[in-house]
Specification:
The structure holds two protein chains of two kinds.
Chain A (H helix, E strand, L loop, with lengths): L1 H28 L6 H15 L7 H22 L10 H22 L15 E4 L3 E4 H23 L1 H11 L1 H6 L4 H26 L7 H15 L4 H21 L4 H15 L11
Chain B lengths: L4 E4 L3 H18 L1 H4 L2 H26 L8 H16 L5 H23 L4 H20 L10 E2 L8 H28 L1 H11 L1 H6 L4 H27 L1 E2 L1 H4 L2 H14 L5 H17 L4 H17 L3 H10 L9 E4 H4 L12
Antiparallel strand pairs in B: 1-4, 2-3
Helix pairs in contact in B: 3-7, 3-10, 3-12, 3-13, 4-5, 4-6, 4-10, 5-10, 7-8, 7-10, 12-13, 12-14, 12-15, 13-15
Classes of the chains: A mainly alpha, B mainly alpha.
């Protein structure tokens, strides 16, 4: 039982990395990135493809991907997604949904439908012995620690830095923020750039921990979304907590019956939506 | 004649369209007598796509509820029909409308959950709900679990009879769906819905019950989607959870509506024709074809927000299904001039 709980929390760590980008983009510009999962998968494949070029170093390839992801996110927001923002959610939804279909099929064309994984040099099979009967995988533990660190950093960035103040300002009232001299389009682009760095990390770690396949994107989007809603909009710690709840729910479900794990996760999400629609740790500003 | 103005609700184009539409329907109804069965199968398939897209347009384009989860009701319609036929012994053709009604009934409790989300989160929330239905049916052994099952209830019905009946139901479905949406939009409720689309707050302040009207639109869209699903799997004879609850149904509906022009009845009609033509010409290219559809949807959304029909309407003022009310001075009301189109979309 304890084993299931720990596995659930560790799985939640990965989900937190999937969800933080979605939470950030929605928080700053009310943009729902329906291609979130596909970008995660795309990042996983990009790292896999980059490994042979970077002296076969997985860590090197993953780190090299981060600035690329930032630039890609910045450019996408600045020159494509900014044009779709507005009161009507439809344009941004259609454009990101279209991107999702384009990415899935491009990956299918380039990498085939087979699941691929990233070689972590034996790291993924190493484990830490905790007591006589309990062992924890080293990679899941590292992912969990990283998720914790990134959640704390994003929250600190939002609460304490000038950039974070700009994020909060354009989120609260774009027009007033612009009157105060902020260029909302650039602030939005920076937010998406940062979100894409977290997405790239999530993709690389997903490929390291299990596999990535071109058709995985939508499911990862749903997990990320569920974590955000369970946690409550407006705070990164909320998203982190939501990811923990989702990871636990799925792991307990898998333990009961392997066919029902994801289904149990969905049901917990729907239950939270009905019983506590504001989420676990809401701090939303309208 | 004390008022001096008259409300005009049709144009010369729309009257011509009505006559042409009725003649085309009457002509199409004779197809089983002379057409090849492959044509009729193709018509049934595109009719399902079209009715589904029309309902998505009602939901997103008029109701402002952008859903990526309408495949939930498509699949429920398909499975409802199949279970009525296979397990309860109901004639599958009779089961189609019952399954459609069942879809609308299930949409009621679903709305209690889905309506807690708005905007983009409503879109993904409805997708999660569709996934819950898919996984539930994948674990239900009485309908074949994950690998699905065949519609054995149609055994014993002669093939020609089956194909003709399926075709006529599809034709009737298309005509009734267009007429239903059109008459609804022209009614008092439809006017309220258009007001909600333009400004929810303003509509509410004028006494429009926003929540109730949105709920009715959601239920109606679920009914239509479930009808399309039930009909599709009568024509297909085989169902599986992955096919029935595939997000592609909604993806194609979004494509058709966006290309044709969202928030107008002509949009899905034009979109379905374009989709059918693209599908015929390029579907052999597989993933390149789908990539192309995705790119077209992106480009149209960014650069041609009104879609193809919106562009034509702006260019020439065409309107086959006008829902606008024009106030015209009585002296001019009987003139044969085309009424200028209203500025709102």
């Amino acid at each position: 039982m304890l084993d299931t709980l720990i596995q659930g929390l560790l799985l939640g760590g990965l989900y937190a990395l999937f969800a933080l980008g979605l939470s950030l983009m929605f928080g700053v510009m009310r943009l729902t990135n329906t291609a979130q999962g596909d970008f995660i998968v795309l990042a996983g494949f990009a790292v896999i493809a980059a490994v042979p070029w970077l002296a076969h170093s997985t860590i090197g390839a993953a780190l090299a991907m981060l600035p690329v992801a930032f630039a890609a996110g910045y450019a996408l927001q600045r020159w494509v997604l900014n044009g779709t923002l507005g009161r009507d959610p439809l344009p941004s939804l259609v454009v990101t949904f279209g991107l999702s279909i384009v990415i899935q099929n491009a990956l299918l064309e380039v990498f085939s439908a087979d699941p691929r994984s990233l070689d972590s040099g034996g790291f993924s099979t190493r484990s830490l012995q905790l007591g006589a009967t309990l062992a924890v995988g080293a990679l899941p533990l590292a992912i969990f620690a990283l998720a914790l660190a990134i959640t704390a950093s994003l929250q600190a960035l939002f609460d304490r830095t000038a950039l974070g103040r700009a994020f909060r300002a354009v989120s609260d009232d774009r027009e007033i923020a612009e009157l105060m001299g902020l260029d909302a389009r650039k602030v939005y682009a920076l937010a998406t750039g940062i979100a894409f760095v977290v997405i790239a990390l999530g993709g690389a770690l997903q490929a390291m921990r299990t596999t990535v396949a071109p058709s995985d994107g939508p499911l990862l989007l749903l997990f990320a979304f569920e974590a955000v809603i369970i946690g409550g909009m407006g705070s990164f710690w909320g998203t982190f907590a939501g990811a923990m709840v989702l990871g636990l729910a799925q792991q307990i479900g898998f333990r009961l019956d392997p066919g029902w794990g994801i289904w149990v996760g969905h049901l917990v999400f729907l239950a939270v939506l009905v019983l506590r629609p504001q989420g676990l740790l809401p701090r939303t500003r309208g | 004649m004390t008022m001096g103005v008259q409300i005009v609700r049709s144009t010369r184009t729309s009257r011509v369209a009505l006559v042409v539409g009725l003649l085309a329907t009457a002509g199409a109804a004779t197809m089983p007598a002379w057409a090849e069965s492959s044509w009729m199968r193709e018509f049934v398939e595109i009719a399902c796509y079209f009715v589904f897209a029309l309902m998505w347009n009602l939901l997103a384009g008029y109701g402002g509820m952008v859903s990526i989860g309408q495949q939930a009701f498509f699949g429920l319609g398909g499975y409802g029909m199949l279970m009525l036929g296979n397990l309860a012994g109901v004639n599958p053709f009779v089961a189609i409308p019952i399954a459609a009604l069942g879809g609308a009934l299930i949409a009621l409790p679903v709305s209690w959950v889905a309506f807690r989300l708005q905007g983009g989160y409503f879109a993904i929330g409805t997708w999660v709900i569709a996934e819950v239905f898919r996984l539930s049916f994948a674990n239900m052994s009485s309908v074949g679990g994950g690998s699905g099952t065949s519609l054995i209830a149609l055994r014993g019905i002669e093939r020609a009879v089956r194909e003709s009946l399926t075709f006529w139901i599809a034709l009737a479905g298309v005509v009734l769906a267009i007429a239903g949406v059109y008459l609804f939009l022209r009614s008092k409720l439809g006017l309220a819905l258009l007001a909600i689309r333009d400004s929810e707050v303003a509509a509410e302040s004028q006494g429009v019950d926003v929540r109730r009207i949105k709920l009715w639109v959601y239920l109606a869209a679920a009914f239509g989607a479930a009808f399309a699903g039930a009909l599709y799997f009568v024509g297909n004879l085989r169902i599986s959870p992955d096919a029935a609850f595939s997000v592609n149904w909604t993806a194609f509906a979004i494509f058709m509506v966006v290309i044709g022009g969202i928030g107008r009845i002509e949009g899905p009609i034009v979109g379905a024709l374009i989709f059918w033509a693209l599908n015929k010409a390029f579907s052999d290219y597989g993933s390149w074809y789908l990539m192309g559809l995705g790119l077209i949807a992106i480009v149209v959304t960014i650069f041609f927000k009104q879609g193809l029909w919106g562009w034509l309407q702006q260019r020439w003022g065409w309107s086959l299904f006008p829902t606008t009310r024009w106030l015209v001075p009585t002296s001019a009301a009987h003139s044969t001039h085309e009424v200028p189109h209203a500025q709102h979309r």
